[in-house]
Automatic annotation (TrEMBL):
This is 2OG-Fe(II) oxygenase. Residues 80-199 form the Fe2OG dioxygenase domain. The keyword Nucleotide-binding does not apply. PANTHER family: EGL NINE HOMOLOG-RELATED (PTHR12907), HIF PROLYL HYDROXYLASE, ISOFORM C (PTHR12907:SF26). The keyword Iron applies. Pfam families: 2OG-FeII_Oxy_3. Its cofactor is L-ascorbate. It comes from the Bacteria. Keywords: Dioxygenase, Iron, Metal-binding, Oxidoreductase, Vitamin C. InterPro entries: HIF_prolyl_hydroxylases, Oxoglu/Fe-dep_dioxygenase_dom, Pro_4_hyd_alph, Pro_4_hyd_alph_FE2OG_OXY. It comes from Fibrella forsythiae. Signal peptide: none annotated.
């Protein structure tokens, strides 16, 4: 018994000019990327046995680019995720970079607030981008079914294709498979913009 949450993929999300600006912004800010953290009982810690990647927490003007894009796609997002529309109270963003050996073990995106014990993250959206031609291997997103719900669904493996947006419920278990990259050049990494829509 296992049931997979609904998910959806959007391709060619940004125009080529905006995509090029995002790549340039990413490479220019290489020195500002730091080790990614994970949530542990209401606080964030670095645990490279669970998550090994780099993160930039302030995506600057691109926050507004993705707010506009996600807002424009919101009808399709709610429809494909089989969700009733709700008022989005907040958009949360971070940029991630995955080099050789980077990964994120199976987890969910609902972070419980230390004081309330509740999370307002409802929808996760991941936008993938990289320089072309692509030089890394791996880094796929795996969505896992819930084993206690009725169904015969199998895990779904999604390739991190350039200019692709993937959306899924934040409670859905998922994983980033390890990246293989022969070069240590930051510009060859697997990049993503991680977005969360709060209720």
């Amino acid at each position: 018994m296992a049931k997979l949450f609904a998910y959806h993929q959007f391709e060619n999300v940004l125009d080529q000019g905006t995509l090029a600006e995002l790549v340039d912004f990413t490479l220019t800010n290489e020195a500002n990327y730091t080790l990614s953290n994970v949530a542990r009982v209401g606080e964030k810690v670095i645990d490279t046995t669970s998550r090994y990647s780099l993160t930039l927490l302030k995506p600057s003007k691109f926050k507004h680019v993705f707010i506009e894009k996600l807002t424009a796609l919101s009808d399709d997002i709610f429809y494909h995720l089989n969700m009733s529309r709700f008022k989005i109270s907040k958009f949360e963003f971070q940029l991630s970079a995955h080099g050789n050996g980077a990964f994120f073990k199976q987890h969910i995106d609902t972070i419980s607030h230390q004081s309330t014990g509740k999370s307002s993250r409802v929808i996760s959206a991941v936008f993938y981008y990289h320089l072309t031609p692509k030089e890394f291997e791996g880094g796929e997103l795996v969505l896992y079914p819930l084993p206690f719900l009725p169904g015969d669904d199998q895990p779904v493996v999604i390739n991190p294709m350039n200019n692709k947006l993937v959306v899924f419920p934040s409670v859905a278990p998922h994983e980033v498979l390890p990246v293989t990259l022969q070069k240590s050049d930051f510009s060859k990494y697997r990049f993503s913009v991680n977005c969360w829509l709060h209720k």
